[in-house]
Each structure stands twice: as C-alpha cells, then as structure tokens.
UniProtKB/TrEMBL annotation:
Residues 34-89 form the HTH cro/C1-type domain. Keywords: DNA-binding. This is Putative XRE-type DNA-binding protein. It comes from Martelella radicis. One of its GO terms (molecular function) is DNA binding. InterPro entries: Cro/C1-type_HTH, HigA2-like_HTH, Lambda_DNA-bd_dom_sf. SUPFAM superfamilies: lambda repressor-like DNA-binding domains (SSF47413).
Length: 115
C-alpha cells in the first residue's frame, strides 16, 4: 500500500480549502502569542481574563485555539494589554510573486501567515 503525500503550502487552512485561510492563519499566529505570554507569566486563566478584560471562559478558548467569533483586531488589543509592542510595516512586495505576504515576527522567529 502506498500513501500519497502532499506538501503543505505553509498554511494549513489553505491546504484544507477554507475560504478565509489567511485570516484564520493570522488569528492562530496571534493567539499563539497570547497563549505563550500567559504561560510564560504563569498567569491563571482568571488572572489573564482580568488583564484582558474578558471572562475566564474566553481565555480558555484562546488557550485551546477555539477562535470563532474573535477578530484579529481583538487579539492584537489583547497583546497590547499583555504589554507587547506591535509594529506594522508596509513595504513593496517581492516582484517575483503575484501578491504581497503577511508575516508576524517575534523576537525568536518570523512566521508567514499569508501569501
């Protein structure tokens, strides 16, 4: 028995054929940052909720990647409340590609979330 292996595009949501793949990828990348900060600071979900101004149950959803109903803008505001600076840089795209890309850079790595 042979298995067909398909190489990922780099966006699992696009690979699954979801129409809003770029938005989902962006939200996931941002939510991972929120969850990482909460874990790094050893915050309880209740304490994180108080900082973020949201119920503990919403923090639980974010920590578990359940992001339905949460916008990228809202997650960006959460990062600000958690004491993070956010820089948005707009520049010319690479002339070798059809459209621009969106990436998130953290002190440790850069993640491309849309092509």
């Amino acid at each position: 028995m042979t298995e067909d292996i398909t190489e990922s595009s780099g966006n699992i949501f696009a690979d699954l054929g979801l129409a809003d793949a770029e938005e989902l990828s962006l939200k996931a990348a941002l939510a991972i940052q929120v969850a990482s900060i909460i874990k790094h600071r050893h915050l309880t979900q209740r304490d994180a909720g108080e900082i973020l101004g949201i119920p503990q149950s919403h923090v639980s959803k974010i920590m578990n990647g359940k992001l339905e109903g949460i916008t990228s803008d809202r997650i960006l505001r959460m990062l600000l409340k958690l004491g993070r600076d956010i820089d948005i840089v707009i520049k010319k795209k690479n002339p070798k590609v059809d459209q621009g890309r969106l990436s998130i850079a953290t002190p440790r790595k850069r993640v491309s979330v849309a092509a």
